[in-house]
Amino acid sequence: MAKRSDATRGRLSREAIIVSAVALADSEGLEAVTIRRLAQEHGVTPMAMYWHFNDKDSLLDGLAEHLIEAVKLPEPSDADWDAQLRDILLAFLTVIRPHPALAGLALRRILAAESGLLIAERVLGLLRQAGYAAGRAAEVGTFLICSIVTLANADPVGGPHRTGEDLEQVFRVKRARLESLPPSRFPNVIAAAPALVTCREADDFFDLNVELLVQGVRGLPRG
Amino acid sequence: MAKRSDATRGRLSREAIIVSAVALADSEGLEAVTIRRLAQEHGVTPMAMYWHFNDKDSLLDGLAEHLIEAVKLPEPSDADWDAQLRDILLAFLTVIRPHPALAGLALRRILAAESGLLIAERVLGLLRQAGYAAGRAAEVGTFLICSIVTLANADPVGGPHRTGEDLEQVFRVKRARLESLPPSRFPNVIAAAPALVTCREADDFFDLNVELLVQGVRGLPRG
DNA sequence: ACCTGAACACCGTTCAAGT
DNA sequence: ACCTGAACACCGTTCAAGT
């Protein structure tokens, strides 16, 4: 698609590859992120990529790290631990939500990058502050991070990104299907149909469920 | 690997294909589940699969449905809504936990299958009972289901399934890496290192975090 | 109804070689 | 240091054909 000159003038670089990979994942989904495809976009042979990355997996490592590094952790403060925890979770969510196709990559790579370790350290610290023992803090903290990824990943339509018009149509079809279920067996699904179909688009969905997580941490025995 | 006779004597069938696909995903991960690979295991041409499934995606639909159908929903009872909700979430988790590689498939397919709609109906019903309005129930319910999938998916080592010996070694290496971080910057990560590495293996991890979700539902404003 | 054969356009990756 | 060329073993899928 692009000749050598416009994607990156001059040389290929890790950074340039990662940036275009993110863009590709956003527009066409993770399965479009391909060594060969990226090479083509940079006007270069597929094998050129192997000078910059050991293999595809380390490209994905790079993508995950690139995202995690963008998280702006709020400074530690005197606020209650639950307020601080919420802010950290929201800071993480803010960064990955625009990249649902890449969210899943973070799942098993948070503790791999320095920036991810910093997030983990802060979350664990607040959980200790809340009264959790180290072991429990690890279990709960792990789950909290995974949950944020899940929220970001809960993109309405998986795979290729569709645009407005298309998306509306997909929603209409899904809603109609749910609403045509037998009312005697599925009253609650039918009542919730509009929200079930579109809720992952609303900011409300994210705020509400981050709050659910924080409330859950508050409600648990600290052992 | 298998000649036509032993995988399934007689004929190929949707069921037989799905069963072997589940086994394959369990032993070698989702990326090993391939039309060609499955065909080979059944001693059949890849194209034979296309008589039983429209394409690979509908094979994956079938896998997801197969799992979801196995969920044994507890009967509605007079127990508190939160106890019932916990039991439903645990019933779902029990089924998908043995198949971490397949868990992700359920994310966007629960509302596609009849059996998934039944789970959704029950969860939504209990949330209504707890005082949630239909819209909020949809938002929270969607997240709860996604979270269970996330828990099941939070398999320690992604990809190919490793066995005991190997796994221990992986754990040792990861723990050592975390414990060798600078103590001044990562005190909590270091203290939690053993649990961070192995917690996804323990039953405790799952029970604790299901409880976190239920407590979260209790702590949220019902709007 | 159920399956094969040949072909197409894709993958990731290795290895040797060029500048 | 950075990239190419040719090759290998894989993918999913279509289309026409066999029984």
Overview of the molecule:
2 copies of one chain form a homodimer. Chain A is an all-alpha fold. The longest helix of chain A has 20 residues, at 134-153. Chain A contains 12 helices and no strands. Chain A has helices at residues 4-7, 14-28, 35-41, 49-52, 56-69, 81-96, 100-106, 114-129, 134-153, 164-179, 187-198, 203-219. The first copy, chain A, has 2 domains: 2-53, Orthogonal Bundle (Arc Repressor Mutant, subunit A); 76-223, Tetracycline Repressor, domain 2 (Orthogonal Bundle), CATH 1.10.357. At the A-B interface, α8, α9, α11 and α12 of A face α8, α9, α11 and α12 of B. The structure holds a DNA duplex (19 and 19 nucleotides).
SSE topology sketch:
The structure is a homodimer of 223-residue chains.
Chain A: H1 4-7, H2 14-28, H3 35-41, H4 49-52, H5 56-69, H6 81-96, H7 100-106, H8 114-129, H9 134-153, H10 164-179, H11 187-198, H12 203-219
The structure holds a DNA duplex (19 and 19 nucleotides).
Portion of residues within helices of chain A: 55-70%
Major protein interface? A-B, 58 and 58 residues
Compute the number of helices of chain A. Answer: 12
Oligomeric form: homodimer
Q: What is the 3D form of chain A? A: flat
Which parts of chain A are unreliable, with pLDDT below 50 for 5 consecutive residues or more? 1-9
Give the CATH level 1 class of the largest domain in chain A.
Mainly Alpha
First CA to last CA of chain A: what distance?
Answer: 57 Å
What is the total tally of β strands of chain A? Answer: 0
The CATH superfamily of the largest domain in chain A bears the name Tetracycline Repressor, domain 2
Based on helices, strands and strand pairing, what is the structural class of chain A? mainly alpha
- What is the radius of gyration of chain A? 21 Å
The CATH topology of the largest domain in chain A turns out to be Tetracycline Repressor, domain 2
| String of helices and strands of chain A | HHHHHHHHHHHH
Mean pLDDT across every amino acid position of chain A = 92
| CATH architect. name of the largest domain in chain A | Orthogonal Bundle
Content of β-strand of chain A:
under 5%
